[in-house]
């Protein structure tokens, strides 16, 4: 197994904050590694270092000569107005025929390939980014929160792609189910140190808990022994006959040391102020229609959500989950029917449009104190703020200087400190790390009020949800089963879709080779495929020669030399153009 990247004694600091402290790790080919750590621990910094976008303070990064990195960015790389095909050509430098062929592997065709890429859903945009990665032919993929805003079906398609991918992967994600599905090793960044564990994220966290319990038992034994020795020394150090024994015990006492339990002081624990435990209906919808003046998204919605339920809103992107949430929070008026909340329901909503409108004039401390329920102590505010990475020394920072992710965390912290009977949460885990998402799930499970939420984190959904409401095909209905049953159904549908697609492909090939056809067509197809492969190899060779000449041309300072290089390159350009035309002819023939 070849080492693709070796991180050796790397240190990286920002001011007084030391993100990497003599960190070392070797990343080999074919490894699939889940990369976890607290928000702010330095995961994104390490990715930027590996991408050579940042330098290290000390130490070194050794890269294999054959390393080809592919990076799936969390942020939007698209330009206004460009199509998916335009982006693929711009990003990869490959011709349109090659980009179109690779895009087809992700079902990017027609309007998905040629229409404005910014108008595609997050799931389809991720497919475009994946196609872009493949065009660079990487052997080491780095994925930064790839499941954010992906619906369940697209997550499963991405999982299938990564399971079959033969190169190495380094995946940053807060989604435990996703990491568990594709990663066999776990890399943690904690206190500047990198630790690689041979096991998935669940096994890693279980192992960490076992080690912590062992260290706590060891420390308890050490403390008991210390007390015993201290008592003996106090009684005997003044006695003439026992002073030497006391000195010997003092040496034993000096050798007793406690094991440092990393993370014990910073364990995330979120406590939501409890509300009155109510019975009956929290939300009732009768013949409700939702959408916009020129578009009905769903109608004939009749359902009830009881007090104390934790209802997960599920469905593919674009089906209307956000429209439904906006309607029940009065952000969007219903088109028809009735919507009624129970008596004295105190509703709080966490969504993107909420946290973008936080008051810029307030500090973090001001905001949390104003949002907290009456009687909330300063210590409780500090504890929740710390859980969302707002340390006490940063609480006087003004909201106007916070990033989008910091605003999101602040808004969620404020909601959890308030005394609300109904919590409506749209993707609450998107800006949180694995441990904080787990703590949020535990807090919601203990919450006596009602929770209506969406999330793309399957582990979180399965942990929290007691009810499932599906938004699909113009309807919003209570699902007959729990979230695990819903997940099983969607997995089966995706698997069946793969089988049908494969069967259709086989049937199409059989029809081409055995059905009624022009005489001798089978031989023509075989020859066309051979010629197509030969043309692809020839184009690749000519492209390489053209690039070499072009590099010399760009560096040439002598006009005569530049003219000679241009003359040498022109026949290659003409030949590549002719080959591409022939490639398109063959491709269209084989697609008939």
TrEMBL record:
The keyword Cell division does not apply. The keyword Nuclease does not apply. Residues 525-552 form a coiled coil. InterPro entries: AAA+_ATPase (IPR003593), ABC_tran_Xtn (IPR032781), ABC_transporter-like_ATP-bd (IPR003439), ABC_transporter-like_CS (IPR017871), ABCF (IPR050611), P-loop_NTPase (IPR027417). Residues 5-223, 283-498 form the ABC transporter domain. One of its GO terms (molecular function) is ATP hydrolysis activity. Keywords: ATP-binding, Coiled coil, Nucleotide-binding, Repeat. Residues 498-523 are annotated as: Disordered. Pfam families: ABC_tran, ABC_tran_Xtn. Signal peptide: none annotated. PROSITE patterns: ABC_TRANSPORTER_1, ABC_TRANSPORTER_2. Residues 502-514 have a biased composition (Polar residues). It comes from the Bacteria. This is Putative ABC transporter ATP-binding protein YheS. The lineage of its organism: Bacteria, Pseudomonadati, Planctomycetota, Planctomycetia, Planctomycetales. The gene is yheS.
């Amino acid at each position: 197994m070849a080492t693709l990247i070796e991180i050796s004694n790397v240190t990286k600091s920002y001011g007084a904050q030391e993100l990497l402290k003599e960190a070392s790790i070797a990343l080999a080919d074919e490894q699939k590694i889940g990369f976890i750590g607290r928000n702010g621990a330095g995961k994104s910094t390490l990715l930027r270092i590996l991408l050579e976008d940042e330098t290290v303070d000390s130490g070194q990064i050794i890269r294999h000569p054959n390393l080809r990195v592919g990076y799936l960015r969390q942020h939007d790389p698209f330009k206004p107005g460009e199509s998916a095909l335009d982006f693929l050509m711009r990003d990869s430098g490959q011709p349109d025929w090659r980009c179109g062929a690779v895009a087809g592997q992700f079902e990017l065709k027609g309007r998905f390939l040629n229409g404005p890429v910014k108008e595609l859903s997050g799931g389809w945009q991720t497919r475009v980014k994946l196609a872009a990665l493949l065009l660079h032919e990487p052997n080491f993929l780095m994925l930064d929160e790839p499941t954010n805003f992906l619906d369940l079906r697209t997550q499963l398609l991405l999982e299938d792609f990564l399971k079959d991918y033969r190169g190495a992967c380094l995946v940053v994600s807060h989604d435990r189910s996703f990491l568990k599905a594709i990663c066999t090793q776990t890399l943690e960044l904690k206190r500047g140190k990198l630790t690689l564990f041979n096991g998935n994220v669940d096994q890693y966290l279980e192992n960490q808990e076992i080690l912590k319990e062992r260290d706590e038992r060891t420390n308890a034994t050490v403390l008991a022994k210390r007390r015993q020795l201290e008592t003996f020394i106090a009684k005997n150090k003044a006695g003439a006959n026992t002073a030497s024994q006391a000195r010997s015990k003092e040496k034993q006492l000096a050798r007793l040391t406690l094991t440092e339990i990393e993370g014990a002081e910073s364990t995330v624990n979120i406590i939501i102020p409890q509300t009155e435990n109510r019975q009956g209906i929290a939300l009732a919808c009768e013949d409700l229609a939702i959408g916009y003046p020129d578009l009905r998204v769903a109608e004939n919605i009749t359902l009830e959500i009881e007090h104390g339920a934790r209802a997960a809103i599920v469905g593919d992107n674009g089906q209307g989950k956000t429209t439904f949430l906006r309607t029940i929070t009065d952000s969007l008026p219903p088109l028809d029917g009735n919507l009624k909340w129970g008596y004295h329901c105190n509703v709080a909503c966490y969504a993107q449009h909420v946290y973008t409108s936080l008051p810029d004039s307030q500090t973090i401390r001001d905001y949390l104190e104003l949002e907290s329920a009456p009687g909330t102590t300063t210590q409780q505010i500090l504890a929740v703020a710390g859980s969302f990475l707002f340390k006490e020394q940063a609480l006087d920072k003004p909201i106007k200087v916070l990033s989008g992710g910091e605003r999101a965390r602040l808004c969620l912290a404020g909601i959890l400190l308030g005394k609300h009977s109904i919590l409506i949460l749209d993707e609450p885990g998107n800006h949180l790390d694995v441990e904080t998402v787990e703590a949020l799930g535990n807090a919601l499970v203990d919450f006596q009020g009602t929770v209506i939420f969406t999330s793309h984190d399957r582990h979180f959904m399965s942990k929290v949800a007691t009810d499932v409401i599906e938004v699909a095909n113009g309807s919003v209905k209570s699902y007959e089963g729990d979230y695990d049953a819903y997940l099983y159904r969607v997995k089966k549908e995706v698997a069946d879709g793969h089988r049908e697609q494969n069967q259709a492909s086989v049937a199409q090939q059989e029809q081409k080779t055995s059905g009624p056809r022009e005489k001798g067509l089978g031989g023509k197809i075989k020859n066309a495929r051979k010629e197509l492969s030969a043309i692809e190899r020839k184009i690749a060779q000519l492209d390489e020669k053209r690039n070499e000449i072009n590099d010399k041309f760009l560096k040439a300072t002598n006009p005569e030399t530049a003219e000679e290089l241009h003359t040498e390159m022109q026949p290659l350009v003409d030949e590549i153009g002719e080959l591409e035309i022939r490639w398109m002819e063959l491709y269209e023939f084989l697609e008939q």
